[in-house]
Amino acid sequence: MLEQLKVGEYTLTWLDGGVTYLDGGAMFGVVPKPLWSKKYPVNDKNQIELRTDPILIQGKSKKYSY
């Protein structure tokens, strides 16, 4: 089931975009790996898991996706 939120005449729907992986060093830049790897564990390729859940905004006969 998709999560939805009504705000005035708009409906926000969270869609399931799945998971993608990004290089941890590229994501956090100059922040040392021992700091960010406590919260975001890495795989054998030094990648962290990131959710990719877009939000669909509907209202006034228009649809937007962010």
TrEMBL record:
It comes from the Bacteria. SUPFAM superfamilies: Metallo-hydrolase/oxidoreductase. InterPro entries: RibonucZ/Hydroxyglut_hydro. This is Uncharacterized protein. It comes from Scopulibacillus darangshiensis. The lineage of its organism: Bacteria, Bacillati, Bacillota, Bacilli, Bacillales.
